[in-house]
Design a protein that fits this description.
Keywords: Metal-binding. By secondary structure, the protein is of the alpha/beta class. The protein has four helices and ten strands; from the N terminus they run βαβαβαββαβββββ. Helix content is about 20%, strand content about 30%.
């Protein structure tokens, strides 16, 4: 099962549209995970219409329209793994232990908020992934997203994809 992970799209505030390389990944993904801060409902509608399966949550910048359509925390079984998705996990210091306590029985936690890519494993085996942002790099050198493969209870081929500083193309 090929996964596409993203967060913090912030459209249309940080960019007018999703970058073309990210949109191209939609066609290859068996499941798309979005960890919140959409800002507009048009992006949610686009991903729902183009994704085979969408697992998504709202973030702190998402208003009532998105909060009415999305949960704060989502759970999904993907490729034999138990996933949880949430926007905020708090400060980086102590994140692994804090998330392992908050999400017992979860294999992979996808989160956002910081726009900083993150890939660590807690002592319990919980894998924590933050795909960064495909549209707002903040203090990072690149905008980013993640792809991975989930199969037979294993997560493999986790890859961080860097996007051009000024994404070209794409549509909403």
């Amino acid at each position: 099962m090929r996964l596409l992970l993203m967060s913090d799209t912030h459209l249309p505030r940080r960019a007018r549209e999703l970058p073309a390389p990210l949109l191209a990944e939609l066609d290859r993904a068996d499941a798309v995970v979005h960890a919140g801060d959409w800002v507009d409902t048009a992006t949610l509608d686009l991903l729902r219409s183009r994704s085979r399966r969408l697992v998504a949550v709202y973030g702190n910048n998402d208003g009532p329209a998105l909060r009415a359509r999305l949960p704060e925390v989502a759970h999904a079984d993907l490729g034999g793994l138990r996933f949880a998705v949430v926007h905020e996990t708090g400060p980086a210091k102590g994140r692994e232990a804090r998330c392992a306590d908050r999400f017992p029985g979860v294999d992979v936690l996808v989160f956002g908020h910081s726009h900083i890519p993150w890939d660590t494993t807690a002592g319990t085996g919980l894998r924590l992934l933050n795909p960064g942002s495909p549209t707002d790099r903040r203090r990072q050198p690149y905008c980013t997203y993640l792809t991975a493969t989930a199969a037979d209870g294993r997560l493999t081929d986790v890859a961080l994809h860097r996007l051009p500083r000024r994404p070209a193309g794409g549509s909403r």
